[in-house]
Amino acid sequence: MRTEADDPLERRRDTLRRIVYGTPDPSEAVIGELVAVEAELVAREAIVDRERAAHASIGLPRAGDPESGSGDDAVRTGRIRMPRWVLVGSLAVALMAAMPVLGSLRDAMSPPRGLEVFERLPPAYERGLARKVVETAGLQSTSPEALRSLGRVLGHEFWAYREEGRVCLLSRREFWFAWVEECVAVDHFATSGLGRVIQAGELTDRVRSTLDISYGEAVIVNWRASSIELEWSIVPGSGYGSDREPAGGPSFGVGDVPPMTYGEWSSSRIADDGGGS
């Protein structure tokens, strides 16, 4: 039956291992501490091994052996006290060696920006959904492996794919609505990104109510080269009726309005209303 280690450093190592290997997204601090603790244990064991070898070479009993007869705590416990400078030096060397590993872990764990989504293999469930997207969007010449999910925003799902020097944004309102496709050259995406204008009438009643958006307004959803996730803005439109569905495209461009979060938009609405009074 497995028991907890008696040594405090080993107990800490075991705890950190359970966190790092047992959770889907451990923090960099926990990973760094585990690397440092394991390096300290390795350095300590190496020093103990060298000490044992030195004793054996001159015929002295090893620390902790019954025949040593020493009353010293270090001998009775089977541990050798290292000079502090040895421990600090060994730990520093171990941390320097671990820096490239930590950098790779940080890059692997950080969310991709823009076109970096195409550099990572999507999970299996997403690959299954991509096949359905290719079929329902009529992308006969596009492989499902080229698609990447960008998530869902305001009741719409978004996908992207890149081929033949261009990058495309696919979007549709959920539940069997038609797909809308926007494509630009890769160089253009690097400077201006891609966007989808969603008219107020294309939103569900629940979303319109949540955003307090009228038929005189629209939503722009942007995906840029620097985007970790989709960004969206509520903007005024033109050519809309106040009490019916929009009847035409807006008079603004996708890049005309900077994106904002829902919290920022809510704060601006409160300010426009005079502080919510």
Q: What letter string, H or E per element, gives the SSE order?
A: HHHHHEEEEHEHEEH
Provide a count of the helices: 8
Largest sheet: 4 strands, antiparallel
Shape: elongated
**Approximate helicity band:** 40-55%
The residue-averaged pLDDT reads 74
Distance between the termini: 67 Å
Give the strand order of the largest sheet, numbering strands 1, 2, ... along the chain. Answer: 1-2-3-4
Judged by helices, strands and strand pairing, the structural class is: alpha+beta
Radius of gyration: 30 Å
Tell me what you see in this structure.
The protein has 277 residues and is α+β, with helices and mostly antiparallel strands. The protein is 41% helix and 17% strand. It has helices at 8-22, 28-57, 73-77, 84-109, 124-136, 186-192, 205-211, 262-272, and strands at residues 147-153, 156-163, 166-173, 180-185, 194-199, 217-223, 231-236. The strands form 2 sheets. A 4-stranded antiparallel β-sheet has the order 1-2-3-4. Strands 5-6-7 form a 3-stranded antiparallel β-sheet, with no helix packed on it. Strand 6 (217-223) and strand 7 form a beta hairpin. Helix 2 runs antiparallel to helix 4 (84-109). Mean pLDDT is 74; it is low at 68-78, 104-108, 239-258 and 260-266.
